[in-house]
């Protein structure tokens, strides 16, 4: 069995450096279908397990408002990688964790690689990675991609996450009472369609429909979930 | 956006979701604003604290995603030929029109800057 791994993160956080550290020379470069955005894929073997790693474009969010975001988001939603490694710039954590929260909402099988630890240290930042891991409900691995610090631990974490054995807390981001009532209501409507709710996380669909995310509206139209579309006043 | 963005979306009812009109946001924190000017009018090297987005919800959402959250400190790195600003440790290029819709306060201090 090959473990499918996707690397995702903000621009310039060291995704390609991590990709190179993970895959060494076993990589090839192509294009994403239909666009001229570069697609890097590579392989590595660790403790007898084979992984296929994809380096996704750098993005700040997961809406479909730019080609890079569309590529990254579609890859996570449609290709369903076994493990998603979110590369976080430890020297710029507030901005970076926004994408992390979006990935948690997407219910990806997530690992956080806290990269650029050397730069963070030179700024005097200290991290309680265990606490961060507890708060996010996912493994957090400190790395310095350029010196390969933490790469072995990252590979171990990937294998463990792929095995599905690691005990993680499911973290939900709350939006306050008013919105939660609506989210629950829409979630229930979505649950009535077992195929729909088996294909996409229902809470994620509910939140995105309230945001009037065009792709999610498209999904609900395909599934003919008129009741949900009516809730948000969506009519063709 | 969870967290600080909550102030913008928090109290809005579900009925308002369809509202695409370009409403002017209430200034955050109810502080009085001494010198509120569009980000697009700052010169190179100048800094401001974001107090409002003067645009519709589509653009506002995009700006929040890019880190232009209320109370954030923003600095103009270069203003010619295009505007480049530093916000939450990232450099972001902005169109002049968009920069005119971000209202900042020149009052120093009180801004929230992560690094
Ligand atoms: N000091 C230090 N530099 C790093 C680290 N990781 C990456 N870099 C450097 O940071 C720069 C950006 O790294 P990339 O790997 O290109 O980042 P990226 O996320 O792939 O960037 P985009 O694909 O443009 O979004 C490069 O100069 C790397 O050598 C790290 O842990 N520490
Ligand atoms: Mg790269």
TrEMBL record, chain A:
One of its GO terms (molecular function) is GTP binding. One of its GO terms (cellular component) is plasma membrane. Residues 2-164 form the FeoB-type G domain. PROSITE patterns: G_FEOB. This is Ferrous iron transport protein B. It comes from Candidatus Syntropharchaeum butanivorans.
UniProtKB/TrEMBL annotation, chain B:
The keyword Ribonucleoprotein does not apply. GO terms for molecular function: transition metal ion binding. It comes from the Archaea. InterPro entries: Fe-transptr_FeoA-like (IPR007167), FeoA-like (IPR053184), FeoA_core_dom (IPR038157), Transcriptional_repressor_C (IPR008988). Residues 37-106 form the Ferrous iron transporter FeoA-like domain. The keyword DNA repair does not apply. Keywords: Iron. Residues 1-29 are annotated as: Disordered. SMART domains: FeoA. This is Ferrous iron transport protein A. It comes from Candidatus Syntropharchaeum butanivorans.
């Amino acid at each position: 069995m090959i473990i499918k791994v996707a690397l995702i993160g903000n621009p310039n956080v060291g995704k390609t450096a991590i990709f190179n550290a993970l895959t060494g020379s076993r990589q090839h470069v192509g294009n994403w279908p239909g666009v001229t955005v570069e697609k890097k894929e590579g392989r590595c073997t660790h403790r007898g397990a084979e992984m296929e790693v994809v380096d996704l474009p750098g993005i700040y969010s997961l809406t479909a408002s730019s080609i890079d975001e569309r590529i990254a988001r579609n890859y996570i939603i449609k290709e369903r990688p076994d493990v998603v490694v979110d590369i976080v710039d430890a020297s710029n954590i507030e901005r970076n964790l926004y994408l992390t929260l979006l990935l948690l909402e997407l219910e990806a099988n997530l690992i956080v690689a806290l990269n650029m630890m050397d730069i963070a240290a030179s700024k005097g930042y200290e991290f309680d990675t265990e606490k961060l891991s507890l708060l996010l409900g996912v493994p957090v691995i400190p790395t310095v991609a350029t010196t390969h610090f933490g790469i072995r631990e990252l590979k171990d974490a990937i294998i463990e996450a792929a095995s599905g054995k690691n005990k993680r807390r499911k973290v939900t981001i709350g939006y306050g009472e008013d919105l939660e009532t609506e989210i629950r209501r829409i979630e229930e409507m979505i649950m009535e369609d077992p195929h729909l709710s088996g294909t996409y996380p229902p809470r994620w669909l509910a939140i995105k429909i309230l945001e009037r995310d065009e792709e999610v509206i498209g999904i609900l139209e395909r599934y003919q979930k008129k009741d949900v579309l009516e809730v948000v006043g969506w009519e063709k | 956006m969870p967290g600080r963005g909550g102030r913008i979306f928090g109290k809005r009812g579900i009925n308002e979701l369809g509202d695409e009109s370009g409403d002017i946001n209430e200034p955050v924190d109810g502080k009085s604003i001494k010198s509120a000017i569009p980000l697009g009018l700052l010169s190179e090297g100048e800094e401001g604290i974001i107090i409002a987005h003067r645009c519709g919800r589509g653009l506002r959402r995009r700006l929040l995603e890019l880190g232009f959250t209320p109370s954030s400190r923003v600095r103009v790195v270069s203003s010619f030929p295009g505007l480049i600003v530093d916000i939450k440790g990232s450099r972001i290029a902005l169109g002049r029109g968009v920069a005119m819709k971000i209202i900042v306060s020149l009052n120093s201090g009180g801004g929230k800057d992560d690094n």
